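Shipment paperwork, digital attachment
Item: protein structure file
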Amino acid sequence: MDKIYLNNMEFYGYHGVLPEETRLGQRFRVTLVLELDLQKAGKTDHLNDTVSYAEVYECCKAVVEGKPYQLLEAVAEEISKVILSGFPTVHQVTIQVVKPDPPIPGHYQSVAVEITRGQIND
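Attachment content:
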C-alpha cells in the first residue's frame, strides 16, 4: 500500500485531565500516515485521484482545536473517524498525537499516543 505522510502538524487545543490544561490550553503535534493506492494519481497527475493534504490538515485542525477531550487517545480516535469517513479511498490511517509540554513532573521530551485504524469494509 502507498502512503501519504503529514508530519508534525502543530495545533493549540484544550485537551487534558487537569483543570489548567482545559483552561489554559497547550500545543499538540499530530503526524498522520494515510495508506491508499496512489498509482492512478501518479499516472494522471490530478489532485482528484489522490487525497488533498490541505483538506486532511483542516480536518485535523478542526478536531484538535475543537471540542476538548480528556485523553490523547480520544483525540486520536476522533481524527481517525473524521479521516476515514471523509476520505473513503484511505484504507488505513496511523495517527500520532504528541503533547510536548504535559503538566507532569519529570524530564522527558514529550508524551504521545499512536493508533492505527482502517476502513470497516477492508
